[in-house]
Design brief:
The structure holds two protein chains of two kinds. Chain A is mainly alpha-helical. Chain A has one domain: ABC transporter involved in vitamin B12 uptake, BtuC, CATH 1.10.3470.10. Chain A is built from twelve helices and no strands. Chain B is of the alpha/beta class. Chain B has a single domain, classed as Rossmann fold. Chain B is built from four helices and eight strands; from the N terminus they run βββαββααβαββ. In chain B, strands 5-6-7-3-8 form a five-stranded parallel sheet, sandwiched between helices. Chain B is globular and about 45 Å long. The two termini of chain B are about 30 Å apart. The chains are: A mainly alpha, B alpha/beta. At the A-B interface, α2, α8 and α11 of A face β5 of B.
Chain lengths: ~270, ~190
């Protein structure tokens, strides 16, 4: 325990940031899954990843170290991806394979950019698989602030957003909702920030693991919410701390496995 | 009688430009009930979705004289298995009404395990609680047993009597059992 405390001091921002972000991503993921849009979010994430890698390439080419470029290009490409999917693909009955094609297209472009910019190789691995232990304090604080703000919005509008998801799944949403627009915008922003600072794998895992375990065994919306938060918060915290026990243990897989373990525990406990 | 909706030569199209419905025109006034009839595939549901902005390609034009906020819509009740564990009370999202629709209903039941009749009663109660000026119902008696269907119809009729400025557009294959004031039928074929 005494050796853990100095480590926790080192990760004083990255630990709370990644744990809170995991919880907020879980809340986002559950609503997108309810809207039958998980494949869309998967593609959105890959589009955003490509934008972030392009931003890194721009930094390498210009000899600068301006992280805002990655965030900006990531956001822009994520937004274009979302627009493309909503306007051209969403209404098609065979949309899932189009989403997969788009995913592969973005992945191929990401690899192409990294291949043409050898200096990016280590950055690409970090942006894809992530390493919470090497997250910058600035990145961690930004993510923590964003996640806390958006998390508060989600929690205070949880029921309303869930009913909106119900209407969207039921094809009966005929009224505009500014809260839903804010939800879409916040999703784009938070997933981009998470992918940039914590990686694609962590972001996608945190979006979908908690809801996969919590949805079927919950009696109502409230118990579902509690289970989701337990899986995301405790699972991530546990996984992060376990990863600190050895330098051979990478953070992101430990955090995701921690979430799955917690999910499994809650799933088996009736 | 104030007009709520004016529809002029609306024809629903598929994304590829094929016709999904014949040309439809009508005016709907306050307090009127419009029953849309027609065979399966005649385009009734697509027409309703077009009016409500859920289906885009169409020709012709239409105009609501009431804000869309005052319109409530219940689509055909499919076999929706919803990912979130909503209870009937969650879906209701309002205080239970006194129109008898929710009588003997266990509102703590999960949506995914509720019957078609239970689901439809909750959805209709929720829609009526918003006191819409225009209610659009697509096959509300599908997946509902005869007794529940009769209860739904009575509740609708009661609502329209209580709110004479409200109107109803209804798609139904099943003949209506109650006596409706200001009922008009429109055959779509």
């Amino acid at each position: 325990m005494t050796s853990l405390l100095p480590l926790l001091q080192i990760y004083k921002w990255s630990l709370p940031s990644s744990v809170i972000m995991a919880a907020v991503l879980a809340l986002i993921g559950s609503q997108w899954t309810a809207r039958e849009k998980s494949a869309q979010v998967f593609v959105l994430g890959q589009g955003t990843s490509l934008g972030i890698v392009l931003g890194l390439a721009v930094n390498v080419l210009l000899g600068t170290d301006f992280h805002g470029i990655s965030l900006l290009i990531g956001l822009s490409l994520g937004w274009i991806t979302l627009l493309l999917m909503d306007l051209l693909i969403k209404a098609k009955s065979d949309r899932n394979h189009i989403y997969l094609t788009l995913f592969v297209f973005f992945l191929a472009l990401t690899y192409l950019v990294s291949y043409m910019t050898p200096a990016l190789e280590s950055h690409i691995a970090a942006s894809y698989f992530g390493d919470l232990a090497v997250m910058s304090d600035a990145g961690a604080i930004g993510c923590l602030a964003g996640a806390l703000l958006f998390g508060l919005f989600l929690l205070s509008n949880w029921r309303e957003l869930s009913l909106r998801s119900f209407q969207l799944a039921n094809h009966s949403a005929i009224h505009q909702s500014w809260k839903n627009r804010l939800f879409d915008l916040g999703t784009l922003l938070l997933t981009t920030m998470a992918i940039q600072s914590m990686g694609y794998l962590y972001t996608m895992g945190s979006l979908f693991i908690a809801t996969s375990f919590a949805a079927s065994r919950s009696q109502n919306l409230r118990s579902y919410l509690v289970k989701m938060l337990l899986i995301a918060l405790l699972g991530s915290g546990f996984g992060f701390v376990v990863s600190l026990q050895s330098t051979n243990l990478p953070t992101v897989p430990c955090v995701l496995l921690g979430q799955m373990l917690m999910g499994l525990l809650l799933y088996t406990k009736k | 009688m104030k007009s709520l909706l004016h529809v002029n030569k609306v024809r629903v199209l598929s994304p590829e430009g094929n016709f999904l419905s014949p040309e439809i025109s009508f005016d709907l006034g306050e307090g009127e009930v419009l029953l849309l009839k027609g065979e399966n595939g005649s385009g009734k549901s697509s027409f309703l979705k077009t009016l409500l902005g859920l289906h885009k390609p169409f020709t012709g034009n239409f105009n609501f004289e009431v804000p869309l906020q005052d319109v409530q819509y219940l689509p055909q009740l499919g076999n929706l298995h919803f990912h979130l564990p909503l209870t009937l009370r969650d879906v209701l999202n309002s205080e239970p009404a006194s129109n008898g629709l929710l009588k003997n209903l266990d509102l703590n039941k999960k949506w995914n395990t509720a019957s078609g009749g239970e689901r439809q009663k909750v959805l209709l109660t929720s829609a009526l609680a918003k006191k819409p000026r225009l209610l659009v119902l697509d096959e509300p008696f599908n997946h509902v047993d005869q007794e529940s269907g009769h209860i739904l119809e009575e509740a609708l009729s009661f609502f329209l009597n209580e709110h004479p400025q409200s109107s109803l557009i209804l798609v139904s294959h099943r003949p209506l059992l109650s006596v409706w004031k200001n009922l008009r039928s429109l055959e779509i074929r």
